[in-house]
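In practice, a research group might receive sequence data for several interacting partners and want a quick structural hypothesis before committing to experiments. The following worked case mirrors that situation: the sequences arrive first, and a predicted assembly follows.
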Amino acid sequence: MDDQLNQLQKIAQVWRAGRLLSGKTQKELSRILGLSQASISKYESMLLEPSASDWYRFCEFAGLDAHKTLELGYIDGKKKFKHRLHSDSAFSLPMRYRGDFYLKVRELIPFKDFIIEKLGNEYWLDFLKNHGIPADIFLIYDFQISLNFLVDLRKDTQKHGFDLLDGALGQVGKDHSHGVLQYEYLKKKSGVDLLKAVMDSQAYYQNVFEIQSKINEKSISCELHPSLEASEIFKMEDLQIYMNFKVKSFQEILKMRNFQDDKFEIQQKENTIYFKLAS
Amino acid sequence: MKLTDKRTVEKRINYFFSQSNELLGDNFLNLLDEFRINTSIKPSENSLTSLVGVFNQLNVTIDNVVKGKVDLITMKNQFYSDDILPSKYIDTLPYSSRFTGFYMLDYIEKEFGQTSAAFTRQHLQLKSSHFRDLSQKNNLLLGIDIADYVLDYHGKRHVESMGKNSMTHYSRGVHGQELAKMNSIQNMLEKLIIDYAPVSIEKNYVWKIERQQPGTLFISGSPKEELVDIFGRETVGARSLEILRTGFISTIPSLMSGLRGSCTQHRSISLGDKWDLYELNYFPYVNNENGLSSLS
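A structural hypothesis for the assembly, expressed as tokens:
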């Protein structure tokens, strides 16, 4: 029964997120698919499971792989509406959370998981509602949201006596926090290879800071600094806090694969963080 | 965009069930029982989750069932053995290396994860066991189908990157290592395009250097005529393959240390030209003052 409910919930959430990503109202979509608006409303409220033909045609319209999307329960194929992943029209994000410098939903999953574990789903949904952020975006792994989201979330959770970033570190080390990227990390056989893969994947998490790396077989040296444009938009203090979190998160990812014995050195000079890993 | 008609979707699901029933007999009925398919109503009227459960067991997807792209004989054979590759990939001219498909799926796994790679395989009725022995051969349709799938669901950029990823793998092979040691970029490109490309990169394609000037190389090409006759121009001149090639060609200069490249396609068979034309530009890769190469 629980499985059935979970499945119904998964379908309902992805249907709604996919519809919103495509920029259609229930009414508009009902016309496109030749369904009643009531049916769509029931699909999105977990009152009814769509028929195979309705699901297939919906995915066809939204440019989604019908089989994969149903099984995964989140939106991965993003080609058709990729221009809307940061658009203000797809989900009407408040101005504070839009912009050219962003974190992707993939980056925020550890924070979401930690908050729900610590303060409950209700707190998470209330926070989103109070800040005008649709919960649906957290089903679209490549959706982009400004660093301000993390700044505000951290500030809000500080009222509860803990630091969100420290807490989320515990989630970063878990495989599932990385979504589809976890499998690449799992294949790496040395800390240096793993860290290199993590560095190479940063574009799938954020574009707030830049990384430069020097790699050889036995070591990887990196320097991390905020992009010039991001420095003009965000407070340096917030950027520093986030970058420090990221460097610690790299260490957590290494620990996840039992590479904690590798030598990881961190140094900070002004706004730049240098770190080195030697096997 | 015109959506598939609702009745067509239902008809194809029902057809798939009736054919599976005929081919698998009692085994199929057991499967229906396991996934609580109500046989007193049409298959398409059953719960979506139950239908997908059956599709998973048969290594097909709802997408290829509805598109009528399931190879039913392969489905039947795979039900009893993991090793059966869809016949369309081996029946005709199996000239291509299994490595090509392997590298493409490797890209999908790296970029979108193991689960995504597994869904891609299922979409094409492939299994991971098909890539255990990479000395096996298949025809060019395997690569085209994988590239088409990525183009459909992930977009052009990823098809290009998939081509780049293949070059990265190639660079680690014997030919890649040899090319890396050559004394000039011009010689390296000539060696690769004239000698290696037709034998170890894309045997189904006729490669030709049109002209060369400092920093630029124009490469033309077209599929071999015998393949055009067999598979049709539309298939062998698939847009996805051209994009894949663009990614692949752009990465050739990086075989040599300190060089990078970019590639632009000027003529395209899929867009109506008689041959493809690619312009490869290559240039030195400048390290910054700390000797760090930029990743961002």
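Before designing any experiment, note the following. Residues 85-279 of chain A form a domain with the H-NOX domain fold (CATH 3.90.1520.10). Chain A has two domains: 2-83, 85-279.
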